[in-house]
Amino acid sequence: MLVKTFSAAVMGLEATTITIEVNLTRGVMFRLSGLADTAVKESYDRIRAAMGNIGFKPPTADITINLSPADIRKEGTGYDLPLAIGILAAHGKVDAGKLNEYMLVGELGLDGRIKPVSGTLPIAIRARAEKYKGLIVPCENAREAAVVNNLDIFGMESLTDVVSFFNGSENHYQPTIVDTRKEFYEQQYAYDLDFADVKGQESVKRALEVAAAGSHNVILIGPPGSGKSMMAKRLPSILPPLSLAESLETTQIHSVAGKLPAGMSLISQRPFRSPHHTVSQVALVGGGATPQPGEISLAHNGVLFLDEMPELSRSVLEVLRQPLEDRVITISRAKYSIQYPASFMLVASMNPCPCGYYGDPTHHCVCTPGQIQRYMNKISGPLLDRIDIHCEIQAVPFAQLSQMQTGEPSAAIRERVIRARKIQEERFKPYKGIHSNAMMTERMLHEFAEPDAASLDMLRMAMEKLKLSARAYSRILKVARTIADLAGSEKVQSMHIAEAIGYRNLDRGDWAERGI
Questions:
Q1: Is 143 helix (H, G, I), strand (E, B) or coil?
Q2: Measured between alpha carbons, how far is 296 from 318 in angstroms, rounded to an integer?
Q3: pLDDT above 70 coverage of the chain, percent
Q4: What is the pTM of this model?
Q5: Is residue 4 classed as helix, strand or coil in its secondary structure?
Q6: Between the N and C ends of the chain, which has fewer C-beta atoms within 10 Å?
Q7: Is 169 exposed, middle or buried (0-12, 13-18, 19+ CB in 10 A)?
Q8: How do residues 159-208 score in pLDDT, each as one tens digit?
Q9: In the predicted model, what is the mean pLDDT of the chain?
Q10: Quick one: DSSP state of residue 169?
Q11: Distance of CA 111 to CAs 46, 48, 89, 114, Å?
Q12: Which of 444, 484, 477 is nearest to 458 (CA)?
């Protein structure tokens, strides 16, 4: 008897419908075709054990299974459930009448329980696009998939439940329903960290406010204990809230990577990713034998924080160049090519030298000029050029630390940031894919950030003194446009240009002047 069940293969952020054809004839052989990996080929052992442990005798027959289309590689354990239901239906234990109305995905335990899998959100999106009535998933994945409307999502605990569902007991099972908008708006501002905890460092807070208002990349340079990590971790608390579309896109990336917390339906806060300095290129960019999003894509619509940036290997740092410019990451391998979104804010921190105390007024630096040069050279000029704001930090004096008065809360800073972002949203409405000043093209700079004569003279002097590149010139104009938006100014004025130039004080030319 020939039976068909349906599942999906996830490649990148997209899912492709997979038809599972099961045919039973006389014999004792098991054959599986359709470019399946080892995990899929091993599924029959798990299926036999699960059937036996829930009271179904595995069929004694010649079982031939084809996964179509055969030119798409099938990976992972999510095919266990549709394979098991297909075998039981071909054996006459499951009514095959409604199998064509549902997609199935799930891993089987040997006791018949259905275990969670990754990528159920893009699979649900594909099921709705293909006009399926519903999707059957593990219970742990039900809320994640239920974000997709106009599709019945059934979370099942065991193979027994799925068999009962298709054998006429579907009315006993209720689809999972998620009020997407209610849950999304309830959790938007649930931040544990607040800038009110930061004492002093007003200039650094201002730099981070400008960065948040224009989605600019920023690097913080200062001695150990000056508060670089503390302030970077509070940056998400002043960023504008995710839109519902951004939330769905972010959730989809985390779903594919298997990073979505159990029971969560939507990611409603901007991601904050902080990989260790030993992170590999593949872990940062993505890819691997089984393609997965890397830290760069997991930080999409949020913040990628690289603490102690020079401690990362130079080869790892250099892979940041393309996504910082293009806001996508393209992974090309012999067998596949995948593109992941990568629109993130890069926040990096570093010491000014290996010992950490170069230029510190209270500690003596023990590093030689050669050691400082090698340390700084770990960050290439082209990469540094792509970081809009360079901010030096000094340790907070004891007099400020001992004060009981709290700093300005994140909520107040966030209000100013949101106002500036709304100005940018209106400005860039006619331009598809442009949402903030950091995304402006050269043509937009001429239209929206053209400096006046006095500002041009100031820029010329800065370019000559700091030996800035053409890219740095564009970055200064983008930051100046953001500063003007925060001030509510329609035109970019010399005061805005001056502040933006002040955020480029760690370029290569400046290092040379300081004898580094």
A1: helix
A2: 13
A3: 95
A4: 0.89
A5: strand
A6: N
A7: exposed
A8: 999 999 999 887 889 999 988 777 777 666 667 888 988 888 889 999 99
A9: 90
A10: I
A11: 9, 10, 20, 9
A12: 477
Structure tokens belonging to residue 55: 């009271």
Three-state DSSP state, 339:
strand
pLDDT at 442 over 50: yes
The CA distance from 304 to 237, in Å, is: 14
Closest by CA to 341, choosing from 435, 277, 208, is 435
3-state secondary structure of 486: helix
CB 113 within 8 A of CB 106: no
pLDDT score of 513 more than 70 = no
Q: What tokens appear for 67 in the block?
A: 């996964």
Least Cα distance to 256 among 118, 463, 96 occurs for 118
The angle formed by the CA atoms of residues 196, 198 and 204, to the nearest 5 degrees, is 115
Least Cα distance to 420 among 478, 480, 482, 492 occurs for 482
Amino acid symbol at 317: L
pLDDT at 479: 96
Report the amino acid identity of residue 503. Y
Query: What is the chain's alpha carbon radius of gyration, rounded to the nearest angstrom?
Result: 28
Q: Scan for tokens 């742990």, then name that residue.
A: 140
Dihedral sign for Cα 114, 118, 120, 126, please: negative
Find out whether 5 and 98 touch, Cβ atoms under 8 Å.
no
Which three-class secondary structure state does DSSP give residue 422?
helix
Quote the CA–CA distance of 81 and 8 in Å, as a whole number: 12
Q: Contact at 8 Å (CB) between 379 and 387?
A: no
List helix spans (H) across 304-365.
Answer: 314-318, 321-326
Query: Which pairing describes strands 30-33 and 389-392: parallel, antiparallel, or unpaired?
Result: unpaired
Among 188, 195, 199, residue whose Cα is nearest residue 235? 195
Q: Give the Å distances, CA to CA, from 52 to 55, 83, 107.
A: 5, 15, 16
Cis peptide before 352 (omega within 30 of 0): no
The span from the CA of 99 to the CA of 170, in Å, is 12
Rounded CA-CA distance 180/191 in Å is 20
Nearest to 105, CA basis, from 129, 75, 130, 71:
75
Q: How many helices (H) and strands (E) does the chain have?
A: 23, 18
Angle between helices 470-487 and 453-466 (to 10 degrees): 130
Helical spans, DSSP H, in 352-469: 369-376, 381-385, 398-401, 410-427, 442-448, 453-466
Q: Which helix (H) or strand (E) holds 287?
A: strand 286-287
